[in-house]
Amino acid sequence: MDKKIIILFVIGLTLLIGLFSYKMVLAFSDYNEEQQKVVDYLKNGEWDEELKKGMSSEETAHLEDVREVMQKLNYVFYAVLLICTVMVTQHYKKKKELGELFLWGGIVAGAGSILIGGLSLISFNWLFTLFHDVFFPQGNWMFEIDSFLIQTFPLNFFIWMLVKILIFSLILASLFILGSIYLRHESD
């Protein structure tokens, strides 16, 4: 099989697993009332006026930026889903090749999850800062400890969201690896 196809699929599947895990955790996590109002805004773009009154203009600007990043991630998710679907469709009769794609995709996605988990254990603050520097380079993501956003979404909230995303990603990566074993066995 062409190595370019494998590399493209591995990158696509790794992104797909990570983004799908993030979307599922975001959709099915339990939130308190204030968190739910913020999540609702991030999903539908409509402010709860009472919520907005309790935030500074910097906080609302940051949430608007977060919403924009989330929309872009949705576009990436659907583009990668389409690419991976096309690739799987092209190889669905070639079980051994499809098994190879699933194997390498699952291994890299799982390794990526383990790497991110390891980095977060070493220094979650560094990883959190890196994430924000990449996605919010304008720097409007730092707030006083008594601000609404820090009080509503303490660091522990993000740690547990990451843990759930990584666990879900590892489960999905493992399923692709198991699927590869099945497909490769079926091709013999």
Fold and architecture overview:
- The protein has 188 residues and is mainly alpha-helical.
- It has one domain (3-187).
- Helix content is 84%, strand content 0%.
- It contains seven helices and no strands.
- The protein has helices at 3-28, 33-44, 49-53, 57-91, 95-135, 148-152, 155-187.
- Helix 2 (33-44) crosses helix 4 (57-91).
- The radius of gyration is 19 Å and the shape is elongated.
- The two termini are 17 Å apart.
Which residues sit in consecutive blocks of at least 5 with pLDDT less than 50? none
Strand proportion: under 5%
Total individual domains: 1
Pattern of helices and strands: HHHHHHH
| Alpha-beta content class | mainly alpha
* Averaged pLDDT: 95
Q: Count of helices?
A: 7
Q: End-to-end span in angstroms?
A: 17 Å
Helix content: over 70%
Summary, kept brief:
The chain contains seven helices and no strands. The chain has 188 residues and is mainly α. α1 packs across α4 and α2 packs across α4.
From the structure above, extract its key features.
single chain; mainly alpha
